Every structure is written in structure tokens, then in C-alpha cells.
């Protein structure tokens, strides 16, 4: 049979007792076309919808609503294949975006929610395996970047938030806390081949109080600003003549302080760019003192200073 509706819709197909029942084709006034099965005037069973905007759905209906397995292709790119409930993706499915991102996992009421894995497109082949809520990573997750760097930790609304561990491709390891996608709070970074920082972080860099141990065994305990030793700090040297330095630091270098040498000598004063005495007082282990300028860490004696 054929029927035209007041709104401009049209139906061509089987009727039973005045109701659409069996195979039929329904064309809406906006150009959307449904072809499939009807039972008692409702879509029921397999069907295909070609929407006016170019999208296409192919799958099953139950009592007028998409239910069961189905495929939706979005005009311009994007495909969902999987379970549907109450007309929306719900259950296990695979969603491929127009940018090439592929999500395989759980859906709830049309959104990625539950366990899932995303393989990102755009050529980087990164993956994220974890918990999703409302289309975004939320909960525990494991992200592997294209270069092999691995993050394992907590996500909140698509951002790293809470405890996490990063194993970088170069062998470095960070373990600590994130706030809104950025390292913040307390954390530990271990550098491949030697070197460890333990302490406060801000905006992704050491900032605040911390302890930095270099691969040569030098240990700095003190203040950091924007990733560099800045403020008050104490260095215990792992090698060389100087045993400890207690002083002021700016941009990773000491500018003044007290140097205590392994032989018991002590220098108090300003330091050069290499952290060596520049101007101040040196007291030897024997009690002898020198007050003046230094060059490359050594007293700058004037000719005739010894009376000759």
C-alpha cells in the first residue's frame, strides 16, 4: 500500500489491519528515508535509515526504537559499530572518528563510559587503555605515546589528575602527583644513568623544597624555582676538594655561601660562575686566613705580598 501523511511524509509497503506491518519504505518530509521491517505500525527488526544530512544507520529495531546491533556512518567520516539500547550506542562497540581515532570499549546512553581502549589517529599511533565517563578518560588509565613513553595513573575529565607514573622512552622515570594535567605537588624523577630529584613540583617543574642527587654523587638539599636550584641550599659533593657548600643559589649555580673543604679549610664569600671562590675569606685547616679576591678558586696574591 501507499500512504501520504499531512506533514508531507510518505509510506510505501505492507499493511495489515490498517497498520504498517512487514517490509516498507518511509520517506520523511526532510528527505530522511527508512527501509526495513514494521510490526504493528512500528519499526521492528532489520532496517536502514539514510538521513537527510548524509548519515546512514543500519541495524535492528525493537518496538520502534533502535535496539541490538547496528552500524552508524557519519557523513564526512566517522563510524560506530556495536550494541544499541533505547536508540543510542550502549554496551560494547567500536567508534572510529573522522580524524582516525579508534575507540573499542563500553558505551552508556550514547557515550563512551566504562572500560575502553583508544588508538589515536593523525599518524602518532598513541594508545590509551582505561576508564571512560561521558566520552572522556576518567579514572585509571594507561597511555602509551608514539615514542614509547608510558603513563600509568589517574585521569579526571580527560586530564591526568592524582597519582601517576611516567616511564619515558629515554629511560627516565617520574612518579608523583598531577593536578589538571600538570605535575604538581610531590614527586620523584629518576634520570637514566644516574641522578634523582625528590621533592616539590609546580607547573611541571621542580619548585619548592627538594633534594637533587647528580650522577656524580653530588647531593643538593634546598630550594628550587621553575626547575632550577634557586634560593637557600646545601650541597654535599661526591668528589673534588670541596666537601660541602651552604649558601645562596640562582639559576642552578651558587652565588655566595660557605665552602667547607675536605681538608678542613673554610671559605666564606662570593662565588664565581663555576661555584669557586671569587671574593671572601679563606681560613685554612692550620688557622691561617686570606681575605681578598680569588681566581679559579685560588687566592689572588699580589707581587711582593710576602715581603720579597
UniProtKB/TrEMBL annotation:
Top-level lineage group: Eukaryota
SMART domains in the record: MORN
InterPro entries per the UniProt record, alphabetical: MORN (IPR003409)
A Pfam family the protein falls into: MORN
Record has Repeat as a keyword: yes
Keyword Repeat in annotation: yes
Coiled-coil residue windows: none
Keywords assigned by UniProt, alphabetized: Repeat
PANTHER family registered for this protein in UniProt: RADIAL SPOKE HEAD 1 HOMOLOG
Protein name as catalogued: Uncharacterized protein
Origin species: Aureococcus anophagefferens (Harmful bloom alga)
Amino acid at each position: 500500500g501507499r500512504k501520504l501523511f499531512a506533514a508531507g511524509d510518505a509510506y510505501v509497503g505492507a499493511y495489515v489491519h490498517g497498520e504498517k506491518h512487514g517490509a516498507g519504505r518511509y520517506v520523511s518530509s526532510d528527505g530522511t528515508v527508512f527501509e526495513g521491517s514494521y510490526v504493528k505500525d512500528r519499526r521492528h527488526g532489520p532496517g536502514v535509515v539514510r538521513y537527510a544530512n548524509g548519515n546512514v544507520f543500519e541495524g535492528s529495531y525493537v518496538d520502534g526504537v533502535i535496539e541490538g546491533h547496528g552500524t552508524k556512518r557519519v557523513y564526512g567520516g566517522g563510524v560506530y559499530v556495536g550494541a544499541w539500547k533505547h536508540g543510542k550506542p550502549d554496551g560494547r562497540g567500536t567508534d572510529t572518528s573522522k580524524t582516525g581515532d579508534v575507540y573499542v570499549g563500553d558505551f552508556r546512553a550514547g557515550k563512551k563510559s566504562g572500560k575502553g581502549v583508544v588508538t589515536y589517529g593523525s599518524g602518532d599511533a598513541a594508545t590509551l587503555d582505561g576508564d571512560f565517563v561521558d566520552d572522556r578518560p576518567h579514572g585509571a588509565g594507561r597511555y602509551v605515546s608514539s615514542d614509547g613513553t608510558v603513563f600509568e595513573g589517574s585521569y579526571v575529565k580527560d586530564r591526568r589528575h592524582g597519582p601517576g607514573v611516567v616511564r619515558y622512552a629515554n629511560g627516565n622515570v617520574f612518579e608523583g602527583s598531577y593536578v589538571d594535567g600538570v605535575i604538581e605537588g610531590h614527586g620523584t624523577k629518576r634520570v637514566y644513568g644516574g641522578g634523582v630529584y625528590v621533592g616539590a613540583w609546580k607547573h611541571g617543574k621542580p619548585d619548592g623544597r627538594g633534594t637533587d642527587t647528580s650522577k656524580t654523587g653530588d647531593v643538593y638539599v634546598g630550594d628550587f624555582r621553575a626547575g632550577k636550584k634557586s634560593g637557600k641550599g646545601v650541597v654535599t659533593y661526591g668528589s673534588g676538594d670541596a666537601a660541602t657548600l651552604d649558601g645562596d643559589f640562582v639559576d642552578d649555580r651558587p652565588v655566595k655561601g660557605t665552602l667547607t673543604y675536605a681538608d678542613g679549610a673554610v671559605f666564606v664569600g662570593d662565588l664565581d660562575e663555576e661555584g669557586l671562590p671569587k671574593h671572601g675569606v679563606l681560613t685554612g685547616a692550620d688557622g691561617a686566613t686570606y681575605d681578598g679576591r680569588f681566581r679559579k678558586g685560588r687566592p689572588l696574591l699580589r707581587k711582593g705580598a710576602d715581603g720579597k
